[in-house]
Specification:
The protein is α/β, with parallel strands linked by helices. It is 21% helix and 31% strand. The strands form two sheets. Strands 4-3-2-5-6-7 form a six-stranded mixed β-sheet, with helices on both faces. Bound molecules: inosinic acid (IMP). The site of inosinic acid has 16 residues, from β5 and α3.
């Protein structure tokens, strides 16, 4: 693989992420207290690290499922057309569902995914996004819980990639081309 032609500046440390997840988990547990089993749906691929840390903080019976929607590809501009590349493995009709997203950017992905999941009749459908870039929004949508609001910068790490690289960084960093 060719060397990076960009630098990464740390934006949110692993420690801050962990502390925020702990706080958000408490709110999620209060909201879903008494649930039979919460279906936690991770949007692939960017949420895989976040969902792993999040579910381990949830003191609730949970089932984990994944859904993959097309988004950036290798480019840095969002596509408006959202396609489902991998659907859920289980049923969500009549069940409590929490959708876990890495970043809400234009909002097209979350809007499309929530429309699809709502059509399946969940008892309750809430969302959590680790990051939110409100200044980029083109669809009026907001996650129930947000980890951090960030400026309009391209970020990597903690599961989030640039052209499939840097998902394994333990922190969130901004990309700066050199
Ligand atoms: P939206 O449909 O424009 O809200 O795009 C959401 C998806 O775009 C996220 O789930 C990410 O996969 C991707 N994305 C948005 N911003 C970034 C970024 O800064 N770095 C990497 N991926 C991003």
């Amino acid at each position: 693989m060719s060397p990076r032609d960009y630098e990464i500046d740390e934006l949110i440390s692993a420690k801050r992420i962990a502390a925020r997840i702990e706080g958000l988990s408490r709110e999620i547990c209060d909201t879903f207290a008494g649930t039979d089993q919460l279906v936690v749906v991770g949007l692939l691929r960017g949420s895989f690290v976040f969902i792993a840390d999040l579910v381990r903080e949830l003191d609730l019976p949970v089932e984990v499922d994944f859904l993959e929607a097309s988004s950036y590809g290798d480019a840095m501009e969002s596509r408006r057309e959202v396609r489902i590349l991998k659907d859920l493995s289980g049923e969500i009709g009549g069940r409590d569902v929490l959708v876990v997203e890495d970043i809400v950017d234009t909002g097209f992905t979350l809007h499309h995914v929530l429309g699809l999941l709502r059509s399946r009749g969940p008892a309750r459908l809430e969302t959590i996004a680790l990051l939110d870039k409100p200044s980029r929004r083109e669809v009026d949508i907001k996650a129930t819980w947000t980890g951090f609001e960030i400026p309009d910068e391209f970020v990597v790490g903690y599961g989030i990639d640039y052209a499939q690289r840097d998902r394994n960084l333990p922190y969130i960093g901004t990309v700066r081309f050199t």
